[in-house]
Amino acid sequence: MKIVALFFPKASIGTYLVAMAVAIALPIFAFVALLLLQLEDNQRSTLKRETAQDALALSRIIDRQLQDMATTLRLLSSSPELENGDLASFHERTETALRNNTLYVLAVDRSGQQLLNTRRPFGTPLEKTANIAALDAAMKSGRIEASDVFRGRTSGEWVYNVTLPRADDPVAALIITQDAKDLGRLVTTQGLAPGWSAAVVDQSGHVVVAAGPAAPEPGTPFDPRILPALSFSRGVFEDEAILPHMLLGYAQIPGWSWKTVIWGPVAQASILSTWRFLIIGGVALVLVAVLAAYAVARQVRTTIRDIAEMAKRMGDGHIVSPVETSVIEANQVAIALSNASFDRSQTEDRLRFVMHELVHRTKNLLTLAQAMMRQLAKQADSVETFQSAVADRLDGLVRSIELLTSEQWGGVSLRRVVDIHLQAFPQSREQIEITGEDFVLKPDAVQNLGLALHELATNSVKYGALSVPQGRVRFEWRDVREEDKPDALLRFTWEERGGPPVVEPSRTGFGTTVIKAHAAAAFRGTVEIDFRLEGLLWVLTAQRATLERA
């Protein structure tokens, strides 16, 4: 009682209604806030995944361009003109073939001296290639490599090379070169959110080409604070100090030393707007709930006072007329009180009549007893015989009176209880197999077993076998005997199969308490629950006497 008084002190109904309104509104507000947090987290996870996928898609586009250039180099390396040393014919044929592709071919010897360059007419004096380091790296590795971006001597533009090393002389390597701005046609922000940018970064960390509102110029070093973190084949980079309210996705171009990166702002406007709406709406909800609760409390308080006045007058012995209020239930109470006051008056009249009859009947019984004892006294030949005769007569009288009193117990058949509760799930009725000999349940058993059965069926429709068309449920009951328990036992079995894989809940909720603890306590039996992978198994074992109506 002290604990109840602590949580429910004496207070007006208005105070309790206002507290109830706040208690209802605040959890709803907190739950919506939790949902918003979850939504924000899901949106951010989705954005990260899409950002990484966009960077990967861009890397595949650049990879196809580099692979096409590598294929072109392999074809040119095996051309007859180059094999025969006819560089003039090779120059003419190559320049004609690549004229519309913004690609240019260089042939260099081992020192890097250009033997031809399709940017210039054949025979024009040429210098060494501007990127000797990229040539040496390709010659050393023996495979096709893409260079870092650099300023070309012939074009004066930012360019990059794809180099094919050869073992022959005098052409030790073939190089395809392209202006970075021409590669930029493949790097686009189309399909990205507004404000996002994309770039291709070479091995040294310089931008080869970029697009978007924050795109740096070719040859510009990419942010050195970010590059060391881009160590995986692909992923997402976040750092509020470096990229405040921004996200960066990257992907390594397979087989090459370049990376693709995309970055841009994380859309926060809609979430912030939703949060503002939630806060304002939550405060308004609480205020409206408090005002509504106060208005209802005022009306109920007036109604209660009117009914209390009726009850007071009724207690004084008056017949009272019902008061008219705006609460239907209160009107029913007022009518009931009015009827009760009239019934009370009639009952008092009847009581006076009954008391009069009781006195009359008591006199008759005493008269009868006196007459009976006088007759017995005349016939008895001893005190013992008299006492025995009186006791026998009085006992017979008592038995006659007891025969006028009887009690009737109601009950419902078990099969009917099962059918009634399963009628709530008509779509799953054909999936349930029911077996067992029918009998009549006690009133308490009807309620308790029905509660457990309804909970099992509800859980199955939501999560178990009845949630899918191919699922099946078997519900049966049968008599069992145990050596250490001579009383008759009943065993109820609910077995599911064919449904989704079952996972044991991490925490005990309301449903588990009903089908386990409540069922076991109500029938003074035992409950076994097995969260099998193929389906839930529930077994209740209890004494038959606790369920069956005698």
Please give the count of helices: 12
Count the E strands. Answer: 18
Distance between the termini: 39 Å
- Poorly predicted ranges (pLDDT <50, ≥5 residues)? 392-409
Say which CATH homologous superfamily of the largest domain is assigned.
PAS domain
Q: Which secondary-structure class do the elements indicate?
A: alpha+beta
The average pLDDT value, as a whole number, equals 80
Radius of gyration, in Å, reads 48 Å
What is the N-to-C order of secondary-structure elements (H for helix, E for strand)? HHHHEEHEEEEHEEEEEHHHEHEEHEEHEE
Task: Tell me roughly what share of residues is in helical segments.
Answer: 40-55%
Q: What is the CATH topology classification name of the largest domain?
A: Beta-Lactamase
Strand content: 15-25%
- Major β-sheet profile: 6 strands, antiparallel
CATH class of the largest domain: Alpha Beta
Total tally of structural domains: 3
CA-based shape? elongated
Task: Characterise the protein shown here.
By secondary structure, this protein is an alpha+beta fold. It has three domains: 11-265, Beta-Lactamase (2-Layer Sandwich), CATH 3.30.450; 313-349, no CATH class; 388-544, Heat Shock Protein 90 (2-Layer Sandwich). It is built from twelve helices and 18 strands. The strands form four sheets. Strands 1, 2, 3, 4, 5 and 6 form a six-stranded antiparallel sheet that branches. Strands 8-7-11-10-9 form a five-stranded antiparallel sheet. A hairpin with a 5-residue loop joins strand 7 and strand 8 (207-211). Helix 10 (414-422) runs parallel beside helix 11 (443-463).
